[in-house]
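note to self — DONT lose this again. spent like an hour looking for the file last time. sequence + predicted structure for the chain T wanted, 278 res
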Amino acid sequence: MAEALAARGMGSAIGAAEFDRLRRFFEAASGIRLGDHKRELVCGRLARRLRERGVADYAAYLRLIEQPGEAQERQLAIDLLTTNETHFFREPKHFEILRGELAERLARGQAGGLRVWSAACSTGEEPYSLAMTLDQVLGRRPWRVFASDLSQRVLAEARRGLYGAQRAGEVPRALADRYLLEGTEEYAGTWLVDGELRQRVDFAHCNLTALPPGLGPFDIVFLRNVLIYFEPPVKRRIVEAVLQRMAPGGLLFVGHSESLTGVVDGLRQVVPTVYRKP
């Protein structure tokens, strides 16, 4: 069976009709529309899954994930099609600005109960970077980080908080000594985020195009390197929905390749890619 399927080139290419069906499925689930140039990427990310499920082609796989009892497979397909590029302390200037904001709030006596949202947290490097920064400046005062992502797979990795040497090496040495625990025996070569810090971070599955009611309010939001994947009307709806869940005077960070100019009105730009809600 497996040899026969391999001989037929199972999962090697996707036809135009099947690609259109697949991207309509992904857009409905995520709000992201895959361009025509993404066909090769789709094949690269899903071909192995077709082999694992023993289906002959993408048409058969689409029929599979459309079945009512295949919710887990649908989520897995979404996970595989979602881009999850992240690093500890990515775009360091943002963390300098964050430290300054925290210090100012602390000086004004407004740092109690601070809530920060990592709105596309991937495998957890960003929310843990936020938590390290908050702990550095605010210490044991009450604060929390809420971290969300569309992918259940990366959320599972994030909750674990276990990273290899390459990723752990991105954390500045002084912070690594304080917040990362080096593994031994079977965990040699890995580093675990300190348990007390992990307890300050809440992870949740969340679709930015359909945010749940009751979320927020947040004082600081990192919505970075995710808006670039959305068409302008969807991008606008996401930003408006995020702003509704922010406290007055809160800071909104977007990625260095992103801008909110022309997307929404009324925000005050602090520096490029950092905005304050009135």
